[in-house]
Specification:
Elements (H helix, E strand, L loop, with lengths): L1 H12 L1 H4 L7 H11 L1 H4 L2 H5 L5 H19 L15 H4 L16 H4 L3
Helix pairs in contact: 1-6, 3-6
């Protein structure tokens, strides 16, 4: 998926600024992430959610999770739940809505009016 690749390249270019050894405060790193990486990822969610496969959706989530782990210096095995983060500003990040549930066995329900 081109969007995930573009976000990965941007995240990689920002790695010297976002990594845990950088002297920049976490809040500033988060702002940099939101302005450069998240602006690439975010339009892919709502605009294309119905058309994105589950595998591509996981790729987008992986880009986001790796960036946030890089910023906070978390290990790779840390849970993805930001609500349990030590950083309150990470707990308040809005969640992207996932792809809609697909019911391919009963397409008639989609055309019925309620």
């Amino acid at each position: 998926m081109e969007t995930a690749q573009k976000a990965r390249r941007t995240r990689a270019a920002l790695y010297p600024v976002l990594n845990r050894l950088s002297p920049i405060p976490v809040r500033t790193k988060l702002s940099i992430y939101q302005k450069y990486v998240r602006t690439i990822i975010t339009p892919a969610g709502p605009a294309w959610a119905a058309l994105i496969s589950n595998a591509n959706w996981r790729r987008l989530e992986a880009v986001q999770n790796i960036a946030l782990r890089t910023i906070t210096g978390s290990q790779w095995f840390v849970r993805n739940s930001l609500q349990q983060s030590n950083y309150s500003h990470l707990q308040n990040i809005g969640k992207m809505s996932g792809p809609p549930e697909r019911n391919r066995n009963r397409p008639g329900e989609l055309t019925r009016r309620t």
